[in-house]
Amino acid sequence: MSRGLLRAIAVVALLGGAVTGSSGCALACPAIGWTNAVALETSAVAGVVAVQFCVAGECSPAPGTEPTSSTNLFIVTPQDDGTWVLGFDMSTPDGVDIRLFDAQNTLIHESEESISWTHSDEPCGGPSTAEPIVLES
Question: Please, are residues 130 and 96 in contact by the beta-carbon 8 Å criterion?
Fold first, then answer.
């Protein structure tokens, strides 16, 4: 290989590296997702055995119902300490409608609650966090 050809290859490699570095294309994010979640404190409301929440008309499954493709976007998980975790897929809604049910699946509390999210500053994104929602009676 001639010296001129080697120099040309070196210049192309250096310029390619400079362009890639300055354009932000050097970072390759994996094709993954995450879920955003917030804790819900319901101790101020007596008799809560089930929680449902809704965002813009889409709701987690109601007590006694099977999940569907539209309700699978959101999930409610009871915790050992008596709180609940509301899972929002990758969305970060500003507000949520909360419904609490007793052992007979009777609605005992309904409220609109706001959520203030702290978003990930990682280059590829990541889960957002929020302070717990604390319900009052």
Answer: no
For residues 40, 43, 47 and 52, what is the CA-based torsion angle, rounded to 10 degrees?
-10
DSSP string spanning 17-79? Answer: HHHHHHHTTT----S-----EEEEE-TTSTT--EEEEEETTEEPPPTT----TTGGG-EEEE-
The pTM of the full predicted model, rounded to 2 decimals, is 0.74
pLDDT in tens, 79-136: 999 999 999 988 899 999 999 999 999 999 999 999 999 988 888 888 899 999 999 9
Instruction: Look at the block and give the residue holding tokens 């419904």.
Output: 99
How far is residue 51's CA from residue 6's CA, in Å, rounded to a whole number? Answer: 68
- Answer yes or no: are the C-beta atoms of 74 and 53 closer than 8 Å: yes
Residues comprising the chain, all counted: 137
Tell me whether strands 37-41 and 133-134 are parallel, antiparallel or unpaired.
Answer: parallel
Angle at 93 between CA 71 and CA 38, to 5 degrees: 80
Tokens coding 95: 């507000």
